[in-house]
Amino acid sequence: MAAETGDPASAGEAPESRQQNAQEEKPQAKDQKPAKPDQQPKAGDAPAGGEKKLSNAELKKKAKEEKAARRAQAKAAQATQQSGPAGQQSQGGEAKGGGKGKSKQDAQQQQQQQHHHQKPGQRVVPVAPKEVKPAIPERFSHLPVARRIKTTQADKDVHPSVLIVGQYMATFEMINPTERLETTLLAFKKVIENYTTPQGTTFSRHFTSHVLSPQIVYLTACRPMCFSMGNAIRWLKLQISKLDIDLADSEAAQVLCTAIDQFIETRSTMAEPIIAVKAVESFSPTEVILTYAHHRLVELALLLAQKCRYKIRVIVVDDPYERTGLKFAKWLSAKGFERVTYSTDLGGLRTHLRSATRVLLGAEAIFSNGAMYGRAGTCDIAVAAKEMNVPLTALCETINFTERVATDSLTYNEIDPERCTEEECRLLFDTTRPEYIDSIITELGWSTPASAAATLRKLEEL
């Protein structure tokens, strides 16, 4: 029968024979695939149920339409499972737009589907998680913020000792700018000691650009450098450029390491006690000193004054965010200071200024125009002291002087990474204009804000 239906000559077959063949064939199911060409009935045959018989061309066309419909339905179902359109409601009534309504189970199903459609031998490339950066208001986007960089993401040329210093700075384990300066230079000493000049070049020409620069870039990425670190790095680069090109690596390293030790000794270690002595020399025996939070130079000056048997009363106004003044006030009481007054914030500042005879503040840096860079809140104290005619003295090492100029707190500053959102953020420092400062005491002696530029010129001659 199959051979007869596929033969064109069968068109002339008797009607009785064709009717018998049509009754023997079962009606084709709707979802059943069409029979092969050699098994399909002829165009003139009619089904047993009296329905209109379809031709071969019509049967093929119908089968193609059903197959296309099934494919379209399968694609639509797969697309719905992977991601729904924006605004479409899930079974729980939550919107799927933007993928925010996906549950953990949906994500697992999607991973299973991707794995199912993966070709044999095809490698699955994991998607690296995006780096989460702190949100910063747009108006403060020009200011830097400290961030902890994983050691695996650092440049391969960064020395292990520098990696450790960067981690400490990023987590604010080292806050004092002088301490940050000393630690950085000591880490650079280890870099110099472990350095070997490549063949075909010299120490002075290769070390700065190929070895020292990656260390500086890494430290700056962890946390913006303080002004003393910038001054020390410029000094170190100058010392490297002065090296004789004929010096052996061991001799060049010895020269630089000795110079670094002397720099730390003269510009940092010896500067602090000298400043304390000169500050006490300006005190009267019965001073009432108001200070803000805690600063290393203020601590040394007050301790020296007590050893000199000055009967000094201390008022500590604390930083409401970090509370370093509370620990300082307790330390003063433990050291034997008879009267120590503690204020939790700036709310009672003017009340305390009425009884103060001097405001003593530690500076993070001094700009060439005489402005003072200090802990956030320093400017508020300086302005209130000026209005109430209380003299203000700033203590600062000359290594923290900078040739830069600032008149506001947004030119140079740093954002607190712990208190920062898209709507608001806290600045770590502020700038006090020179007219609110009466005197500046450094290891070179007593000076005024107007002589800051002269102090910088004097340092260049040393």
Structural write-up:
The chain is α/β, with parallel strands linked by helices and 462 residues long. Among the domains are: 151-269, Four Helix Bundle (Hemerythrin (Met), subunit A), CATH 1.20.120; 271-461, Rossmann fold. It contains 15 helices and twelve strands. The protein has a seven-stranded mixed β-sheet with strand order 3-2-1-4-7-11-12, sandwiched between helices. Strands 5-6-10 form a three-stranded antiparallel β-sheet, covered by helices on one side. Strand 5 and strand 6 form a beta hairpin. Helix 5 (160-170) packs antiparallel against helix 6, helix 5 (160-170) runs parallel beside helix 7 and helix 6 (177-193) runs antiparallel to helix 9. The longest helix is centred in the N-terminal third of the chain and has 27 residues, at 56-82. The protein is flat and about 120 Å long. The relative contact order is 0.08. Its main location: cytoplasm.
What gap, in angstroms, lies between the N and C termini?
A: 116 Å
**Stretches with pLDDT under 50, minimum 5 residues:** 1-50, 83-104, 119-131
CATH architecture of the domain at 271-461: 3-Layer(aba) Sandwich
Mean pLDDT: 82
Strand order of the largest sheet: 3-2-1-4-7-11-12
Classify the helix fraction into a percent range.
40-55%
Structural class determined from secondary elements: alpha/beta
> What's the name of the CATH homologous superfamily of the domain at 271-461?
Translation initiation factor eif-2b, domain 2
Order of helices and strands: HHHHHHHHHHEHEHEHEEEHEEEEEEH
Sheet with most strands = 7 strands, mixed
Extended strand count: 12
- The CATH class of the domain at 271-461 is Alpha Beta
SS strand fraction: 5-15%
The gyration radius over C-alpha positions equals: 41 Å
Pfam families: IF-2B
Family: Belongs to the eIF-2B alpha/beta/delta subunits family.
Keywords: Cytoplasm, Initiation factor, Protein biosynthesis
InterPro entries: IF-2B-related (IPR000649), IF_2B-like_C (IPR042529), NagB/RpiA_transferase-like (IPR037171)
